[in-house]
Amino acid sequence: MSPLRNIAIIGPTPTLGSYILNSLLRTPNFNITIITRSTSLSTFPPHPSQTIIKIPDTYPEPELIAALTNQDALVINLPVSLTATTQLKIIDCAVKAGVKRIIPSDFAGCVPLEKTQELDFMTRDNVTVVKYLKDKEREGMTWSAIKCGLYIDYQLAVPWFCFDLKAQKVQFWDEGEAKFSTSTRERIGDAVAAVLTHPQETENKIVYVNSFTTSQKQLLGVLEKATGSKWEVETVNSVDEVSAGKEMLSKGNMMGIGAIVKSICFTEGWGADFEAEDVEVMNEVLGLEKENLEDVVRKIVESF
Ligand SMILES: NC(=O)c1ccc[n+]([C@@H]2O[C@H](COP(=O)([O-])OP(=O)(O)OC[C@H]3O[C@@H](n4cnc5c(N)ncnc54)[C@H](OP(=O)(O)O)[C@@H]3O)[C@@H](O)[C@H]2O)c1
């Protein structure tokens, strides 16, 4: 495959998108086209390699095809609230426009094991999108889906994710010892750029990357060192949490997904520890160094 030069990105704004955009803009020889919604309040500082296209919020086909014509690659970064259907429509438009490589909005925290798919609709959606992309291979399009673990720098700064930096409290899932893969958003942005500069190595693959693997217990030790204080520990039972999450979802309460996602990440056997699964973690192939857990946590604590 010839080098990918013209790269379009949909959803290049927080929580993750701005990190992806920054990495793409730093990559030599990339021409970046930002596709943003007409009503979006996002702003983009001028950059010589960047073009901005505003299209209606519903991503209509003619406008999307026009925006994607002459693009070599498309990176999609959309909120999970939009479901797989929006992505399938965007993929169709990209194929019609002749885009050669698609990176879907995946960026998931776990390997999509059968049991994880049964539990988590977001994992199921990601599998649906990958199946669709595989189907489109015969039309000449290629794809790479990136799985990166939790966004450690984001999740640690919001108490929703068990670590409450302000109150210095943690909620352990069982003993807090289950290992999980995790990445900083900067590293995920770099992974997107690296996938596009390594098109052969990443062709038609789920690409696993991480900054490091850790556990809640290990993170607590590093956080206590970084904050210089002893944290309060509460323990919950993972089996009870899964039941509670399922019950909430079955009653239409989407908040139940919180307990499900945390159970997948903080309990063994749901696919959150990439190194423990039968998958290739591609950091080395892509030239992405692992990060130092203590340095990352110290930076998060200092900027909190
Ligand atoms: N591994 C993890 O820890 C983790 C955590 C959260 C999310 N994720 C994954 O990361 C990806 C992005 O999710 P996210 O929650 O971070 O996305 P997000 O920041 O909420 O949205 C990304 C962009 O999508 C565009 N957009 C299009 N329609 C929208 C709508 N109806 N409402 C809001 N924004 C809309 C916006 O860009 P414009 O304004 O420029 O149009 C927005 O900035 C998903 O694949 C998700 O599964 C992973």
Automatic annotation (TrEMBL):
Residue ranges crossing the lipid bilayer per the database entry: none
The protein's name in its UniProt record: Isoflavone reductase family protein-like protein
Top-level taxon of the source organism: Eukaryota
Taxonomic classification: Eukaryota, Fungi, Dikarya, Ascomycota, Pezizomycotina
Keyword presence, NADP: yes
UniProt domain NmrA-like: residue ranges: 6-237
Molecular-function annotations in GO: oxidoreductase activity
UniProt keyword terms in alphabetical order: NADP, Oxidoreductase
InterPro entries in the cross-refs: NAD(P)-bd_dom_sf (IPR036291), NmrA-like (IPR008030), NmrA/Isoflavone_reductase-like (IPR051609), PCBER-like (IPR045312)
Alphabetical list of Pfam families matching this protein: NmrA
